[in-house]
Amino acid sequence: MVNVLQLVLSLLPLSGFWDRPQSTLNVLHDAFVHDSVEPPPTEPTKSIAIVGAGSAGLGVLKAILDLPESIREDWEVVLYEQRRAVGGVWLPDPPGYHVEPPEVPETPLYPRLHTNTPHPTMTYPHFPFPPGTPLYPDWEAVLNYHVDFAAHYNLTPHINLNHTVVFAKWHAHDGTGDWHVEVHAQHGEDEDEVVIRRTFDHLIVANGHNHYPHYPTWDGTKGWLANSQQGKPARQILHSVYYREPEKFANLSVIVVGSGASGRDMAQQIEPLARVVYQSIRETKETAPDTTVTPKPPIAYLTNYSVIFEDGTELFDIDAILLGTGYEFRIPFLSSPQSSVLLTDPATSFNSSTAQTLTTNLRYIFPLYQHIFSLAPTVPPTALTFIGLPVLIANCPSDFAQGQIVAHALANASLLPSHDEMLNDLISRERSVSARGYDPYYEGHRLVDGDTEAQDYQDSLVDYLKKNGAIPDDGRKYVEPWRRASRSQAPLLLRAWKRAGKLGEQERWLAGIETEDEWADLMARLAEWQREWENTHPALVASTYSSPEWLYE
Ligand SMILES: Cc1cc2nc3c(=O)[nH]c(=O)nc-3n(C[C@H](O)[C@H](O)[C@H](O)COP(=O)(O)OP(=O)(O)OC[C@H]3O[C@@H](n4cnc5c(N)ncnc54)[C@H](O)[C@@H]3O)c2cc1C
Ligand SMILES: *[C@@H]1O[C@H](CO)[C@@H](O)[C@H](O)[C@H]1NC(C)=O
Ligand SMILES: *[C@@H]1O[C@H](CO)[C@@H](O)[C@H](O)[C@H]1NC(C)=O
Ligand SMILES: *[C@@H]1O[C@H](CO)[C@@H](O)[C@H](O)[C@H]1NC(C)=O
Ligand SMILES: *[C@@H]1O[C@H](CO)[C@@H](O)[C@H](O)[C@H]1NC(C)=O
Ligand SMILES: *[C@@H]1O[C@H](CO)[C@@H](O)[C@H](O)[C@H]1NC(C)=O
């Protein structure tokens, strides 16, 4: 099959390819679609490409397949995933894999990663983790969860693994248009790369945003790196996307920068092995709990010999600076030089009302309605959608809520408000972020009011569908009351689970827990058990860490 495709491609003059008659496209189409997909019996009425098989891509794929058969039976839904399996960030490096900057690894996952949120709060609705899963499982449980989800809902036939979307260009015509997409497929190490070029009506971007490292720029960095101390290994500055094993930092003096999940995890894991660990954080933030790392303010600049902090203090003997400084919102396949759909400009002076194209300033992609639908003058809202952009949110449930509104808007574009209404909605969202003292173009897709805003956001998407008759109104909110409650009790639950661990009682708590309701009940009982204990043992409350940090930087 692959060879047929290659042959066909090699016979085609590339320049004329896009205006091939439909019949030729079908030849190509049949030649590459996953073997187990039954080609639609008739010409597809709609073709949809999803990019990415992490939580976001799987969530929207399921939501589309959930549409009534009568609506979607002639749709063609194809998901492209560049890696060897589904799971996104939860899928580890391939065996023996190692990359050095500037190349970026496939995932930021490190072997000792455990979730920092209780898994029942992370789930797609009605699909709990398997019985016996510890409340804060390791990455492998989360990976398997995604694999199981894809298998259980029969998503796999739509998923093309080892398929990298290289570019997607929007060709507008007759008030609508289509996507010209190029995909590179690698079917095995010894096989040649296969180039697929074809068109789609809709593009759904679910490519994740924990991939392109954000580097702070400090004066003096070059000199500091070039002047390692005598008898010590070469100094290094390493972003958390490259962090894997704490052993690499044994006996070294390390500064961890940042107080998000990655900064905290690196500090916790390295501290027992390192000579000394400092954590450089902003005034309002906390150092990693259960450690004795020394807090430092943000770094001001470096000299050949030292690191100087904003309070003027100086450290001379540092061997490594580890950056938990987060990621940039980039989408290469939509941006120059591959495409001109997304303008990438950190210093852009455009805003949501003035932008001529979709724009990313590396922290924020705008203008988008509800973080999902393109409001750029160049691409219609249902032609280009994004899943998984919101930050500070439980991804799977949010991805599925977003997926539902996308699915229904693809089925019926009139479901969406008018372009002007959507743009006004966005501008008032940005104003409200400003009114709360934040810069909307810096905070970007962060839901700055935390869990309440994150839950309300998901409810509002689904309520909208109910109000407009797209899905039946069962009188319930999308975010279940137990999920709301347990997210707000997250720090308490983490302390409870740790205490249960010290008492050797975790297995007892997990015994017999199977259904979503039972998991919800388990969290409620655990929280109560911990609250009572903390009330009677205030001096013993293990950790002073008061707020969970949802930011995976
Ligand atoms: C270190 C770390 C720890 C985390 N811990 C937690 C936690 O404890 N709890 C929690 O709820 N969340 C956690 N998260 C957040 C996590 O990122 C989300 O939960 C979620 O898994 C993100 O899913 P996604 O699908 O949006 O992105 P990703 O998981 O990044 O998936 C995107 C997929 O798109 C693919 N892709 C990208 N570009 C292309 C292309 N051009 N062509 C084809 N495929 C492409 C990628 O290969 C990838 O598989 C953590 C994140 C990180 C980085
Ligand atoms: C994907 O690529 C990997 C590594 O080259 C290979 O082992 C695997 O068989 C490929 N999978 C598919 C579905 O082509
Ligand atoms: C810092 O180190 C660089 C390169 O090692 C050297 O060229 C430079 O002169 C040094 N600067 C100072 C102020 O010592
Ligand atoms: C760290 O130092 C200790 C004590 O000096 C030594 O025993 C150990 O081997 C060192 N570890 C590494 C990885 O260098
Ligand atoms: C966008 O920028 C223009 C021009 O600088 C300005 O007049 C307008 O108020 C801005 N709009 C928003 C919503 O920030
Ligand atoms: C599409 O949505 C609009 C607005 O909600 C509605 O009036 C119309 O009936 C819907 N069309 C179909 C075919 O469902």
UniProtKB/TrEMBL annotation:
Classification via Pfam families: FMO-like (PF00743)
One Gene Ontology MF term: flavin adenine dinucleotide binding
Keywords, alphabetical: FAD, Flavoprotein, Monooxygenase, NADP, Oxidoreductase, Signal
Cofactor section: FAD
Domain of life, per lineage: Eukaryota
Signal peptide location: 1-16
Record-stated family: Belongs to the FMO family.
Protein name as it appears in the record: Dimethylaniline monooxygenase
